[in-house]
Amino acid sequence: MKRNGKRLVIALGGNALGKTLPEQMKAVKLTAIAIADLVEDGHEIILSHGNGPQVGMLQIAMQEYAAKYQEPPAPLSVCVAMSQGYIGYDLQNALREELIDRGIHKAVSTVLTQVRVNQNDPAFQAPTKPIGAFMTHADAQEKVREKGWTVVEDAGRGYRRVVASPQPIEIMEIETVQALLNAGQIVVAAGGGGIPVVAEGHHLSGIGAVIDKDLASALMADTLDADTLIILTAVEKVAIHFGKPDQTWLTDLPVALAERYLCEGHFAEGSMKPKVQAAVNFVRGKAGRTALITQLERARDGVRGLTGTTIH
Ligand code: ADP
Ligand code: MG
Questions:
Q1: Which of 14, 18, 95, 293 has a CB 3.0–4.6 Å from the CB of 27, allowing a cystine?
Q2: What pLDDT, on a 0 to 100 scale, did the predictor assign at position 166?
Q3: Active-site position among 193, 213, 237, 308
Q4: Which CATH number fits domain 7-311: 3.30.70.580, 3.40.47.10, 3.40.1160.10, 3.10.180.10?
Q5: Helix crossing, 52-69 with 76-101: angle to 10°?
Q6: Which entry of 19, 29, 106, 129 is annotated as an active-site residue?
Protein backbone atom coordinates (compact mmCIF):
# COMPACT_ATOMS: atom_id res chain seq x y z
CA MET A 1 0.00 0.00 0.00
CA LYS A 2 1.19 3.53 -0.71
CA ARG A 3 1.41 5.93 2.19
CA ASN A 4 -1.94 7.54 1.43
CA GLY A 5 -3.57 4.23 0.61
CA LYS A 6 -6.80 3.37 2.36
CA ARG A 7 -8.61 0.12 2.93
CA LEU A 8 -11.74 0.34 0.79
CA VAL A 9 -14.71 -2.03 0.79
CA ILE A 10 -16.54 -1.42 -2.48
CA ALA A 11 -20.10 -2.63 -3.09
CA LEU A 12 -20.93 -2.84 -6.79
CA GLY A 13 -24.53 -2.29 -7.89
CA GLY A 14 -26.50 -3.86 -10.71
CA ASN A 15 -25.10 -1.46 -13.31
CA ALA A 16 -21.58 -2.80 -12.68
CA LEU A 17 -22.62 -6.25 -13.93
CA GLY A 18 -25.51 -5.85 -16.38
CA LYS A 19 -28.54 -8.11 -16.52
CA THR A 20 -27.55 -10.84 -19.01
CA LEU A 21 -24.46 -12.92 -19.77
CA PRO A 22 -23.33 -10.76 -22.74
CA GLU A 23 -24.08 -7.55 -20.78
CA GLN A 24 -22.00 -8.83 -17.88
CA MET A 25 -18.99 -9.53 -20.12
CA LYS A 26 -19.08 -5.90 -21.28
CA ALA A 27 -20.00 -4.27 -17.97
CA VAL A 28 -17.18 -5.92 -15.99
CA LYS A 29 -14.61 -4.35 -18.32
CA LEU A 30 -15.81 -0.85 -17.36
CA THR A 31 -16.02 -1.89 -13.73
CA ALA A 32 -12.44 -3.17 -13.89
CA ILE A 33 -11.27 0.24 -15.16
CA ALA A 34 -12.92 2.02 -12.22
CA ILE A 35 -11.43 -0.42 -9.70
CA ALA A 36 -7.97 -0.44 -11.30
CA ASP A 37 -7.91 3.38 -10.98
CA LEU A 38 -8.25 2.95 -7.22
CA VAL A 39 -5.58 0.24 -7.10
CA GLU A 40 -3.29 2.58 -9.02
CA ASP A 41 -3.98 5.29 -6.42
CA GLY A 42 -2.56 2.90 -3.82
CA HIS A 43 -5.71 1.66 -2.09
CA GLU A 44 -6.37 -1.80 -0.72
CA ILE A 45 -9.58 -3.18 -2.24
CA ILE A 46 -12.27 -5.61 -1.14
CA LEU A 47 -15.11 -5.93 -3.65
CA SER A 48 -18.65 -7.10 -3.14
CA HIS A 49 -21.50 -7.05 -5.62
CA GLY A 50 -25.22 -7.54 -6.15
CA ASN A 51 -26.63 -10.62 -7.86
CA GLY A 52 -30.37 -9.99 -8.44
CA PRO A 53 -30.64 -10.81 -12.16
CA GLN A 54 -27.99 -13.56 -11.99
CA VAL A 55 -29.47 -15.42 -9.04
CA GLY A 56 -32.92 -15.08 -10.64
CA MET A 57 -31.60 -16.67 -13.84
CA LEU A 58 -29.93 -19.53 -11.95
CA GLN A 59 -33.00 -20.15 -9.83
CA ILE A 60 -35.29 -20.39 -12.84
CA ALA A 61 -32.82 -22.69 -14.62
CA MET A 62 -32.58 -24.94 -11.56
CA GLN A 63 -36.38 -25.01 -11.14
CA GLU A 64 -36.87 -26.01 -14.78
CA TYR A 65 -34.19 -28.68 -14.50
CA ALA A 66 -35.86 -30.04 -11.38
CA ALA A 67 -39.28 -30.12 -13.06
CA LYS A 68 -37.93 -31.80 -16.20
CA TYR A 69 -35.94 -34.55 -14.46
CA GLN A 70 -38.13 -34.92 -11.36
CA GLU A 71 -35.17 -33.96 -9.17
CA PRO A 72 -35.31 -31.80 -6.04
CA PRO A 73 -34.53 -28.19 -7.07
CA ALA A 74 -31.33 -26.54 -5.87
CA PRO A 75 -32.09 -24.44 -2.78
CA LEU A 76 -31.77 -20.67 -3.02
CA SER A 77 -28.57 -20.72 -0.94
CA VAL A 78 -26.97 -22.98 -3.56
CA CYS A 79 -28.08 -20.59 -6.32
CA VAL A 80 -26.45 -17.68 -4.44
CA ALA A 81 -23.23 -19.74 -4.21
CA MET A 82 -23.38 -20.37 -7.97
CA SER A 83 -23.93 -16.66 -8.64
CA GLN A 84 -20.92 -15.73 -6.48
CA GLY A 85 -18.76 -18.14 -8.45
CA TYR A 86 -19.92 -17.02 -11.85
CA ILE A 87 -19.78 -13.28 -11.12
CA GLY A 88 -16.47 -13.59 -9.28
CA TYR A 89 -15.02 -15.45 -12.25
CA ASP A 90 -15.91 -12.62 -14.65
CA LEU A 91 -14.89 -9.84 -12.25
CA GLN A 92 -11.55 -11.32 -11.25
CA ASN A 93 -10.59 -11.99 -14.85
CA ALA A 94 -11.59 -8.51 -16.03
CA LEU A 95 -9.67 -6.92 -13.19
CA ARG A 96 -6.64 -9.16 -13.66
CA GLU A 97 -6.48 -8.17 -17.33
CA GLU A 98 -6.94 -4.44 -16.67
CA LEU A 99 -4.18 -4.49 -14.02
CA ILE A 100 -1.75 -6.37 -16.28
CA ASP A 101 -2.49 -3.83 -19.04
CA ARG A 102 -1.34 -1.13 -16.61
CA GLY A 103 1.75 -3.06 -15.56
CA ILE A 104 0.36 -3.82 -12.09
CA HIS A 105 0.94 -7.33 -10.84
CA LYS A 106 -1.57 -8.15 -8.16
CA ALA A 107 -3.53 -11.34 -7.64
CA VAL A 108 -7.33 -11.19 -7.56
CA SER A 109 -9.36 -13.90 -5.90
CA THR A 110 -13.00 -14.64 -5.15
CA VAL A 111 -14.08 -16.08 -1.83
CA LEU A 112 -17.34 -18.02 -1.62
CA THR A 113 -18.78 -16.26 1.37
CA GLN A 114 -21.43 -17.39 3.82
CA VAL A 115 -23.16 -14.81 5.98
CA ARG A 116 -24.85 -15.87 9.18
CA VAL A 117 -28.35 -14.62 9.92
CA ASN A 118 -30.64 -15.14 12.90
CA GLN A 119 -33.36 -17.73 12.39
CA ASN A 120 -35.59 -15.60 14.63
CA ASP A 121 -35.04 -12.41 12.61
CA PRO A 122 -38.48 -10.78 12.29
CA ALA A 123 -37.86 -10.57 8.52
CA PHE A 124 -38.68 -14.30 8.34
CA GLN A 125 -42.23 -13.49 9.48
CA ALA A 126 -42.64 -10.92 6.69
CA PRO A 127 -40.87 -12.00 3.48
CA THR A 128 -40.59 -9.13 1.00
CA LYS A 129 -38.15 -10.09 -1.74
CA PRO A 130 -39.68 -11.72 -4.89
CA ILE A 131 -37.37 -14.26 -6.55
CA GLY A 132 -37.40 -16.90 -9.27
CA ALA A 133 -39.92 -17.89 -11.93
CA PHE A 134 -43.51 -16.71 -12.27
CA MET A 135 -46.05 -19.42 -11.44
CA THR A 136 -49.75 -20.04 -12.11
CA HIS A 137 -52.14 -19.82 -9.17
CA ALA A 138 -52.36 -23.65 -9.02
CA ASP A 139 -48.56 -24.15 -9.07
CA ALA A 140 -48.13 -21.46 -6.45
CA GLN A 141 -50.69 -23.14 -4.16
CA GLU A 142 -48.87 -26.46 -4.56
CA LYS A 143 -45.54 -24.88 -3.48
CA VAL A 144 -47.24 -23.31 -0.49
CA ARG A 145 -48.63 -26.74 0.53
CA GLU A 146 -45.56 -28.83 -0.28
CA LYS A 147 -42.67 -26.54 0.58
CA GLY A 148 -44.17 -23.93 2.86
CA TRP A 149 -43.19 -21.13 0.46
CA THR A 150 -44.73 -17.70 0.78
CA VAL A 151 -46.04 -16.57 -2.59
CA VAL A 152 -47.44 -13.25 -3.78
CA GLU A 153 -49.22 -12.05 -6.86
CA ASP A 154 -46.61 -9.89 -8.65
CA ALA A 155 -48.09 -6.91 -10.53
CA GLY A 156 -50.52 -8.98 -12.64
CA ARG A 157 -47.70 -11.08 -14.13
CA GLY A 158 -48.35 -14.23 -12.11
CA TYR A 159 -47.35 -15.59 -8.73
CA ARG A 160 -43.84 -15.54 -7.32
CA ARG A 161 -42.06 -16.83 -4.28
CA VAL A 162 -41.07 -14.14 -1.78
CA VAL A 163 -38.23 -14.65 0.65
CA ALA A 164 -37.06 -12.86 3.75
CA SER A 165 -34.25 -10.31 3.76
CA PRO A 166 -32.76 -10.73 7.26
CA GLN A 167 -29.98 -8.68 8.85
CA PRO A 168 -26.44 -10.00 8.30
CA ILE A 169 -24.74 -10.93 11.59
CA GLU A 170 -21.38 -12.54 10.78
CA ILE A 171 -19.18 -13.01 7.70
CA MET A 172 -18.13 -16.64 8.11
CA GLU A 173 -15.06 -16.54 5.81
CA ILE A 174 -13.66 -13.27 7.17
CA GLU A 175 -10.34 -14.88 8.19
CA THR A 176 -9.82 -16.06 4.62
CA VAL A 177 -10.52 -12.57 3.28
CA GLN A 178 -8.12 -11.11 5.85
CA ALA A 179 -5.36 -13.61 4.94
CA LEU A 180 -5.68 -12.76 1.23
CA LEU A 181 -5.55 -9.02 2.01
CA ASN A 182 -2.46 -9.57 4.15
CA ALA A 183 -0.92 -11.29 1.12
CA GLY A 184 -1.53 -8.12 -0.91
CA GLN A 185 -4.40 -9.54 -2.97
CA ILE A 186 -7.62 -7.96 -4.19
CA VAL A 187 -10.56 -9.94 -2.87
CA VAL A 188 -14.11 -10.37 -4.15
CA ALA A 189 -16.29 -11.48 -1.22
CA ALA A 190 -19.85 -11.48 0.16
CA GLY A 191 -21.32 -11.33 -3.35
CA GLY A 192 -25.10 -11.06 -3.50
CA GLY A 193 -25.11 -10.23 0.21
CA GLY A 194 -23.51 -13.61 0.96
CA ILE A 195 -24.90 -17.13 1.11
CA PRO A 196 -27.42 -16.91 3.95
CA VAL A 197 -26.81 -19.53 6.63
CA VAL A 198 -27.94 -20.24 10.16
CA ALA A 199 -25.69 -21.92 12.70
CA GLU A 200 -26.85 -25.18 14.30
CA GLY A 201 -24.01 -25.94 16.67
CA HIS A 202 -20.98 -25.92 14.38
CA HIS A 203 -23.08 -26.91 11.37
CA LEU A 204 -23.99 -24.13 8.94
CA SER A 205 -27.27 -24.64 7.18
CA GLY A 206 -28.33 -22.66 4.10
CA ILE A 207 -31.62 -20.82 4.50
CA GLY A 208 -34.05 -19.44 1.88
CA ALA A 209 -33.36 -15.73 2.20
CA VAL A 210 -31.65 -12.87 0.36
CA ILE A 211 -29.40 -10.58 2.39
CA ASP A 212 -29.14 -7.00 1.19
CA LYS A 213 -25.71 -6.61 -0.42
CA ASP A 214 -25.16 -3.10 0.92
CA LEU A 215 -25.84 -4.16 4.52
CA ALA A 216 -23.58 -7.23 4.14
CA SER A 217 -20.85 -5.00 2.67
CA ALA A 218 -21.14 -2.62 5.64
CA LEU A 219 -20.74 -5.56 8.03
CA MET A 220 -17.70 -6.80 6.10
CA ALA A 221 -16.20 -3.27 6.08
CA ASP A 222 -16.80 -3.02 9.84
CA THR A 223 -15.24 -6.43 10.55
CA LEU A 224 -12.18 -5.65 8.38
CA ASP A 225 -11.96 -2.20 9.99
CA ALA A 226 -11.93 -0.53 6.57
CA ASP A 227 -11.38 3.22 6.25
CA THR A 228 -14.17 3.77 3.75
CA LEU A 229 -17.24 1.89 2.57
CA ILE A 230 -17.94 2.78 -1.05
CA ILE A 231 -21.30 2.01 -2.60
CA LEU A 232 -21.18 2.33 -6.38
CA THR A 233 -24.53 2.60 -8.10
CA ALA A 234 -26.33 4.35 -10.95
CA VAL A 235 -26.54 7.85 -9.42
CA GLU A 236 -23.69 10.25 -8.72
CA LYS A 237 -25.17 11.47 -5.45
CA VAL A 238 -27.92 10.80 -2.96
CA ALA A 239 -30.85 13.23 -2.99
CA ILE A 240 -33.55 14.33 -0.62
CA HIS A 241 -36.99 14.92 -2.16
CA PHE A 242 -35.76 12.52 -4.86
CA GLY A 243 -37.66 12.91 -8.15
CA LYS A 244 -39.66 15.89 -6.83
CA PRO A 245 -39.41 19.54 -7.89
CA ASP A 246 -37.43 20.45 -4.76
CA GLN A 247 -34.95 17.58 -5.22
CA THR A 248 -31.59 18.43 -3.63
CA TRP A 249 -28.37 16.49 -4.21
CA LEU A 250 -26.28 15.89 -1.11
CA THR A 251 -22.49 16.15 -1.05
CA ASP A 252 -21.58 16.27 2.59
CA LEU A 253 -23.86 14.28 4.88
CA PRO A 254 -23.12 14.07 8.62
CA VAL A 255 -24.27 10.73 9.99
CA ALA A 256 -26.85 12.23 12.36
CA LEU A 257 -28.48 14.06 9.46
CA ALA A 258 -28.46 10.85 7.40
CA GLU A 259 -30.35 9.16 10.24
CA ARG A 260 -32.88 11.99 10.32
CA TYR A 261 -33.46 11.74 6.56
CA LEU A 262 -33.84 7.96 6.90
CA CYS A 263 -36.60 8.51 9.49
CA GLU A 264 -38.24 11.13 7.28
CA GLY A 265 -38.48 8.58 4.44
CA HIS A 266 -36.32 10.29 1.80
CA PHE A 267 -34.78 7.08 0.53
CA ALA A 268 -36.69 4.41 -1.37
CA GLU A 269 -37.09 0.94 0.21
CA GLY A 270 -34.99 -1.71 -1.52
CA SER A 271 -32.84 0.81 -3.42
CA MET A 272 -31.41 3.93 -1.73
CA LYS A 273 -32.59 3.24 1.82
CA PRO A 274 -30.41 0.16 2.44
CA LYS A 275 -27.41 2.06 1.01
CA VAL A 276 -27.80 5.00 3.40
CA GLN A 277 -28.54 2.58 6.25
CA ALA A 278 -25.40 0.58 5.41
CA ALA A 279 -23.36 3.80 5.35
CA VAL A 280 -24.75 4.82 8.75
CA ASN A 281 -24.09 1.36 10.27
CA PHE A 282 -20.47 1.46 9.12
CA VAL A 283 -19.73 5.08 10.07
CA ARG A 284 -21.37 4.67 13.51
CA GLY A 285 -19.06 1.70 14.23
CA LYS A 286 -15.91 3.76 14.87
CA ALA A 287 -14.74 7.37 14.82
CA GLY A 288 -12.97 8.56 11.67
CA ARG A 289 -14.76 6.31 9.20
CA THR A 290 -16.46 7.58 6.05
CA ALA A 291 -18.87 6.10 3.54
CA LEU A 292 -19.20 7.24 -0.06
CA ILE A 293 -22.17 6.70 -2.34
CA THR A 294 -21.56 7.56 -5.98
CA GLN A 295 -21.66 6.40 -9.56
CA LEU A 296 -19.36 3.61 -10.73
CA GLU A 297 -17.67 5.88 -13.30
CA ARG A 298 -16.98 8.54 -10.65
CA ALA A 299 -15.35 6.25 -8.08
CA ARG A 300 -11.84 7.68 -8.37
CA ASP A 301 -13.07 11.28 -8.18
CA GLY A 302 -15.33 10.34 -5.29
CA VAL A 303 -12.46 8.88 -3.26
CA ARG A 304 -10.49 12.05 -4.01
CA GLY A 305 -13.34 14.04 -2.49
CA LEU A 306 -14.47 15.61 -5.76
CA THR A 307 -17.95 14.12 -6.08
CA GLY A 308 -20.49 11.72 -4.60
CA THR A 309 -22.23 11.83 -1.25
CA THR A 310 -19.90 11.38 1.71
CA ILE A 311 -21.41 10.23 5.00
CA HIS A 312 -19.13 10.88 7.95
P1 ADP B 1 -27.99 -0.99 -7.11
O2 ADP B 1 -28.18 -2.05 -8.12
O3 ADP B 1 -26.76 -0.18 -7.33
O4 ADP B 1 -28.15 -1.49 -5.70
P5 ADP B 1 -30.61 0.29 -6.89
O6 ADP B 1 -31.45 0.46 -8.07
O7 ADP B 1 -30.98 -0.74 -5.87
O8 ADP B 1 -29.13 0.09 -7.42
O9 ADP B 1 -30.49 1.69 -6.11
C10 ADP B 1 -30.04 2.87 -6.74
C11 ADP B 1 -31.20 3.71 -7.24
O12 ADP B 1 -31.94 4.26 -6.15
C13 ADP B 1 -30.83 4.92 -8.02
O14 ADP B 1 -30.51 4.61 -9.35
C15 ADP B 1 -32.07 5.83 -7.89
O16 ADP B 1 -32.92 5.65 -9.01
C17 ADP B 1 -32.79 5.28 -6.67
N18 ADP B 1 -33.06 6.23 -5.60
C19 ADP B 1 -34.11 6.11 -4.75
N20 ADP B 1 -34.14 7.08 -3.84
C21 ADP B 1 -33.06 7.88 -4.10
C22 ADP B 1 -32.54 9.06 -3.49
N23 ADP B 1 -33.12 9.61 -2.43
N24 ADP B 1 -31.42 9.60 -4.01
C25 ADP B 1 -30.80 9.05 -5.09
N26 ADP B 1 -31.27 7.92 -5.70
C27 ADP B 1 -32.38 7.34 -5.22
MG1 MG C 1 -29.96 -2.45 -4.94
A1: 18
A2: 97
A3: 213
A4: 3.40.1160.10
A5: 130
A6: 129
